[in-house]
Amino acid sequence: MTWVLLCDREGMDWYRWEQRELANTLRAVGPDAPTLCEGWRSRHLAAHLYLRLHRPGQFLAGLLPGLTDAGTRTMELGEAHADPEAYEGLLDRFLAEPAAWNPMALAGDAIHLLEYVVHHEDVRRADGPVQPRNLAPEQLSTLWVQVRRAGRTTQARDRTGMVLVVPGGPRAVVCRARHSIAVTGDPVELALYLTGRTEHADVDVVAVAAQQPTL
Description:
- With about 220 residues, the chain is an alpha+beta fold.
- Helices cover about 45% and strands about 10% of the residues.
- It has helices at about 15-30, 40-55, 60, 70-80, 85-95, 110-125, 135-155, 185-195, and strands spanning about 160-165, 170-175, 180-185, 205-210.
- Helix 1 packs antiparallel against helix 5 (about 85-95) and helix 7 runs parallel beside helix 8 (about 185-195).
């Protein structure tokens, strides 16, 4: 597989495609399916996705006295959409185009793609291991860019270095230290590993010798 950053042939950001696929999966499992997000059923995940995209101010509300925090709002909205018909409506609202004034409307793959891919797997893997999806090389290449950035953020204060490796593809040092590990997997699996879903990520983790030359 050739790993180069390409655009969708139709000019569509990959997160839009992933958003639709995620919504389709949520529709298929219904409002009461388990997820990998502790305490959340599928309806709560749908509520989170809707609020994040269409009501991003809710995530700041908890910082102000007297306002409901995002976690509580997510649970309340999810419970309000436990009925299958209401749940379908919530997913329709999630798929709707954000308002022009909403900064999330301009965020693109850099903000949305990794989020949607990870939450999609939260639904797919909640009942155990599943076959990996056959994603387009262009989408995986775009996701790799976000995974690399996420690694630099999540590992910034870690005393153990980390190298991310895609089999037969690129690799990136996301944290430098005397003692390091190499985490090998495709971009979806690396995304799960970096976002704390280590038990559900199909990766190989091995120690790297001290003073390993820069890759």
